[in-house]
Amino acid sequence: MNKLIVGVLGGVGVLQAANAFANVSEGPPDYSGITGLYYTLIALILGFGVYDTFFKKS
After folding, report:
1. What pLDDT score does 19 carry?
2. Is the distance from CB of 36 to CB of 18 less than 8 angstroms?
3. Which of 8, 20, 47, 56 could form a disulfide with 37 if both were Cys (CB 3.0 to 4.6 A apart)?
4. How many whole angstroms separate alpha carbon 23 and alpha carbon 58?
5. What is the pLDDT of residue 46?
6. Out of the domains of life, which is the source (predicted)?
């Protein structure tokens, strides 16, 4: 089960990173791709904190 979760989260991270690096445009900077990557990273960190605090067995 843990390998499945790590695989899914890793896949989401890779897709977000690919989207962030693919958004190269001319003109003013477009931060839409990197913003999604940052939000994904923050969500993973907060999700791990909630898991570690409430659901992890001692």
Report:
1. 64
2. no
3. 20
4. 44
5. 92
6. Bacteria
Domain assignment present for residue 7? The answer is no
Q: Are 36 and 23 spatial neighbours (Cβ–Cβ below 8 Å)?
A: no
Q: How many structural domains compose the chain?
A: 1
> Alpha-carbon Rg of the chain, whole angstroms?
15
6, two tokens: 């790590």
Residue 1, in any domain of the structure: no
47 vs 42: CA distance, rounded Å: 8
| Cβ atoms of 57 and 48 closer than 8 Å | no
Q: How far is Cα 16 from Cα 39, in angstroms, rounded to an integer? A: 10
